[in-house]
Design brief:
Elements lengths: L23 H14 L3 H11 L20 H5 L2 H13 L4 H11 L6 H17 L1 H4 L28 H5 L3
């Protein structure tokens, strides 16, 4: 929930934030593992169908032709990049300039430098401007080395500014 894709208050009322430290790319990988190891073919088929559906937090219905209306990654960028940015930002306190540099080296065959910079800027803006949604989130487990739980690793004011961070990669 590092981008703020949640129903303000709706998701907070769940009493336990099961995804507070699990990146979307890991969730997708875990679901794929379940599909690969499913004994029931109908279950396996259903899980693969879910995996083939683009992630959309709003769960908007498809149009009359069956096309999905909202493609979240086209709006905010590839989750693999954002999970990478988030990890280096929170785990190592890396500056945007450093994150940009290592992302360019890591993803040089998959994304252009311009794409990486565009999505890093999007990440920074959304990460800072959506803190007000993370602050009231319920407690959640710390599964990996970082967590977005407001009572765990991330204690950030809701009015934090992002401009200084963007200036680092201009």
């Amino acid at each position: 929930m590092h981008f703020g894709w949640c129903t303000y208050n709706g998701d907070q009322m769940s009493m336990y934030g099961v995804n507070s430290s699990i990146p979307k790319t890991l969730v997708k990988y875990l679901i794929e593992w379940v599909a690969e190891n499913a004994q029931n073919e109908e279950c396996k088929k259903t899980i693969y169908d879910i995996l083939d559906t683009p992630i959309s937090p709003e769960l908007l219905p498809a149009d009359n032709e069956g096309n999905i209306k909202q493609m979240t990654e086209s709006l905010v960028g590839p989750y693999v990049l954002h999970d990478f940015f988030l990890y280096h930002f929170l785990r190592y306190g890396a500056s945007p300039k450093k994150i940009y540099y290592i992302a360019c080296k890591t993803f040089d065959k998959k994304f252009s430098k311009e794409e990486i910079k565009k999505w890093l800027k999007t990440f920074i803006k959304r990460f800072f401007t959506q803190q007000f949604k993370r602050n009231p989130m319920p407690d959640g487990p710390k599964v990996g080395t970082i967590s977005l739980s407001p009572r765990g690793d991330l204690r950030m004011p809701s009015d934090a500014e992002f401009e200084m961070w963007l200036n680092d990669i201009q």
